[in-house]
Amino acid sequence: MKVKFDCKKFFEDLDGFLDEKTRRYVVAAASSATEYGGATLVAKAAGISRSVIYNGQKELKAIKDVSIPIHSTVKQRKKGAGPKWAIDKDPGLLKDLNSLIQPYVHGDPESPLRWTSRSLRHLATELGTMGHQISHVSVGKLLESIGYTLQSNKKSHEGGNSHDRDGQFKHINQCVTAFQDEDLPVISVDAKKKELVGNFKNAGREYHPMGMPPEVEVYDFVNENGKATPYGIYDITANEGFVNVSISPDTAAFAVDSIRRWWKVMGMPRYGEARALLINADGGGSNGSHNKLWKVELQKMANDYDMSIYVSHFPPGTSKWNKIEHKMFAFISMNWRGKPLQTTEIIVKLIANTKSKGGLSIKAELSKKMYKTGVKITDDKMGELNILYNDFHPEWNYVIMPQKTASNV
Predict the structure, then answer these.
(1) Is 12 left (phi over 0), alpha (psi -120 to 50) or beta?
(2) Is residue 256 within 8 Å of 298, Cβ to Cβ?
(3) Of the residues 59, 73, 83, 260, which has the maximum number of CB atoms within 10 A of its CB?
(4) Model confidence pLDDT, tens digit, residues 315-351
């Protein structure tokens, strides 16, 4: 037997008897008990927005998940008088959670969104072995508070699935941690995609007077201004970046010169007499693992600064795992969206003015030097390098040490 229920009258009768939180729970429960379209029906009847209902449903689910009983006699706490957050009671929790996640961090190069491939229950279990008492629900809340979300699989082609890919991620993480423990510089490097210089359309929107959008060229053809290549260096520890902008081809010489400029402008003042540098780089391009000129130019830098340069490459097809992509390049793209990149000077200014809520700061310079393409490196030249390859995937992991010549002995 069907019972007729007047939803609107139900909420009218309760009007004035429910506080804000209880009302939120009531509409959430009513919506859940209603067939398809319940949120819309209840929202109209109660005179509220559907977002209030969705928030109430989330709160009810969270309360049930952590087994908190609800009684009519429970007093409502004042703002700020709730139970202490897990990291307040356990200061080492956040650090240990990050240590579990970092080797597995994924990211979209054009988005600051990050996510983790490890399940909440597995993380909670591993944290338990480290001495932390925390449920998988609380792990999820903690991850959300620091910018992570747990996402399902999505079929997409990223390139090859290299053998020992996860092993290389762990190796990179171990190297980064070891360098940071010794207060030594760790940088993530890469060339951002080339940008047309001129009055061309740039993806994205920004506010302008109504009906007065900026007018740009109809066709995006390369003109006399060419294309600009921003080569970036991201200091992982300091959350600082440096970008060298050039219209020259993106060669290994340009890449290493950009690193040199970072060292002079930002690295040396911060790290002083450091005699070791760790570089995280993609597996291809101007800083690729098989690029001979890249290694030759790094050898010159190692000699000039009497510095051992450690390099760890990301496996093929995993460039988006590189920190610089979602820690720096993503915010640059967001900062100049909708703005025509009319000159290289404008590009430099837009990059230098890029900020993030996490405290990111960037310095940018314009390089007018032109670099030759097609430079051939002989096997004899490679044989002269003072390079030591790691036992684990030597093609990805190696250190270039200063050559002991008369000038640096």
Answers:
(1) alpha
(2) yes
(3) 260
(4) 988 888 899 998 999 999 887 776 777 688 989 999 9
Dihedral angle of Cα 199, 201, 203, 207, to the nearest 10 degrees: 80
Q: Which residues of 23-78 form beta strands (DSSP E)?
A: none
Tokens read off for 174? 């171990």
Concatenating the DSSP letter of every residue in 5-36 gives --HHHHHHHHTTT--HHHHHHHHHHHHHTS-T
Give Cα 244 distance to the centre of its chain: 20
Looking at the DSSP assignment, which residues form a beta bridge with residue 234? 188, 241
By C-alpha distance, which of 224, 401, 379 is closest to 302?
Answer: 401
- Quote the CA–CA distance of 309 and 354 in Å, as a whole number: 29
Mean pLDDT, residues 288-313: 97
Judge contact between 236 and 358, C-beta under 8 A: no
pLDDT score, position 157:
45
When pLDDT is averaged across residues 79-100 and rounded to a whole number, the result is 70
Helix ranges, 146-251 (H)? 165-181
Q: How far apart are the C-alpha atoms of 211 and 200, rounded to whole Å?
A: 19
- Tokens linked to 204: 């994205």
Residue 55 or residue 65, greater confidence: 55
| Sheet with 148-149, side-by-side order of all strands | 105-107, 114-116, 148-149
Give me 337's structure tokens: 């969206």
